[in-house]
Amino acid sequence: MVFSCGKYFKMVRNYKRKTQSNVDESKMKKAIADVLNGVETPTSASKKYNLKRQTIESRVKKHGHKNVDAIYQSKFTWKQVFTIKEEAELVDYVKKCCYYQYGLSYKNFQKLAYQYAVANGKEFPENWNVNNEAGIDWLHSFMKRNPSLSLRKPEKTSLARLTGFSKKAVDEFYSNLRNLYEKYSFQSNDIYNLDETGITTVVESPKIIAPKGQRQVGQAVSAERGSLVSLVGIINASGNRLPPAFVFPRVRYNPQFLNGCVTGSLGLVSKSGWMMSELFIDVLKHIQNNTKCSKENPILLLLDNHSSHCSINSINYSRENGIHLLSFPPHTSHRLQPLDVSVYGPFKKFVQTSFYDFMTNNPGKRITIYEVAQLTNLPFQRAFKSENIISGFQSTGIYPFNSQNFSEDDFCLAAETNEDALTEPVPLQPDNIVNTSITDPLEPNNSTNVPVSLTPEQIRPISRLNASKITAKTGCSRILTSSCEKKRLEEKAAGINTQSAKRNIQFSGKENIPKNKSKKNKRKKVQPKTRKHKSLVRMQIDSSDESNMSVEYADTDQSVGSFVDGEETSEAVNFSSHEFTDDFELNVGDFVLTLPAQTCKKKVYYVAEIIETLSECTFTASFLRKLDVLQPIFVKPENKDISLVLKSEILFKLPNPVNPASTSRCRTKYIFETDLGGFNIK
Question: Based on the number of CB atoms within 10 Å of its own CB, is 647 exposed (0-12), middle (13-18) or buried (19 or more)?
């Protein structure tokens, strides 16, 4: 159905023709020629050539006395705003913008089409002038006429990645990979890839069916913001995978974290849930236990340049156990890393579905870090398939080895530099319009000159990156286990330690600097220390006499004293009764002060009771909670906090506590007759 809109026609978007139009174009040309030359009338020509009279009249009226050799494909193409060549220029412009990672949305393209029509002096509907953009009906028709374009949701790509994937960096990676292949003759089952990915307890909800017209559609999730758990995936070029490793955001490890996980998974803990240098050694041990690699049977491990992968201890362990570490160039893992290319994409989609099904089947129940390992079990089995893994190694050119895997066009974006990172549109001027001769398939082939105005790129210059203005991480692909690389990292670590020592010397000499007698330097009244006090920075222990110890503060030059009725005495803390030795014996029922592995600068100590001895260095302990800030009064929580404790985490053994038995409530309290004021105990 066609609606009249002024002198333009508006057709429904999804119009389907009900009749078949099979016009013999050769007969139509002869009929139009006879009518134009006055030999026949439209009626006689229709009878002579067995054509419809209305069709002959329409084409004669449409093209007048123009060349009859033109091919007329549509009755209404003459009402299009742009010609086929002009639409082709728009299509090329849109594709070029997408190539430079600055694609156009529907709104931007409608405004561009309006500016393009104004610059070319085209006739267009009046509503274009009202909104200063092309109409939505024209946009949908344009997309149908050009099926090579489609509306896509782009993947977020950082500026560093856009410029980091350069030919120089990729060639250097392939050169290092070729050298390792030639030296050690690695097979497909000896080539591994390792990478971490984050899993939050709150994922993006999938699309659901909802009532039409409803403004807001909600979906239940566990919380506003979820907790992060890192998953370490390990695959090899033969299509196999190793059990994953999980890094949970906790200080102490709980075996319940791995309930329902993939068989053989490794559980680790860190304060933030991110991979740390100390934890990466455990991952390397996990790999060595599953692959049985050694110096006689080495393997190749491909990973990124994250700082946790490049520690001296990790490199020493890898060299001792036949693990050769090769890093990807910075900001290239989205194209070179098999896990990122073909595995983690489907894995994240399956995780989203798994979390959604759990929330649907368990109304009112939240997803915590205790359910992450179980809910990622099935997605891991489905995403880490042999087909996906082998495809990832092939598409990146790692195995089978293909150093020409990427063409020159893949590096053009990183190679191009432009002084104007984002150029502004140039003003439209009549001098920019050039007169030339063009030929359009919809229009007759004649010799008249048709004015051609600005192209889309002249109206709206394409936004290009200025690589010199992007501050990206510098680096390259490195063989981390090589001798020269190990020496470089050792020198770098030595330089950091030297700078840290200088800062400590300056800090230690701070008390010798005379203070100005001003109002700002007047000492304020000392308040009782609380849990939120953040001035404790370090503890110095004299190696010659471990019993003499003082705690220094960053903002004062006095040692910590004891607290009596909210006032601080000048008497320093006496730790002579504490056993700072590694040879003390622990039995069931002993109380100890522990310092678990932590990532924050402020150390937090815990009091625990030994309830089981697993080995000489491993114990099971029940942790207590501190009730009073000023006095060492502790209590066992209702939900027992039981975890493993290493002997290296135990500072000293506490004396037996005093249990006031005046009331039944006091029998659950423990008071230690020792001064623990210098420790931040929770």
Answer: middle
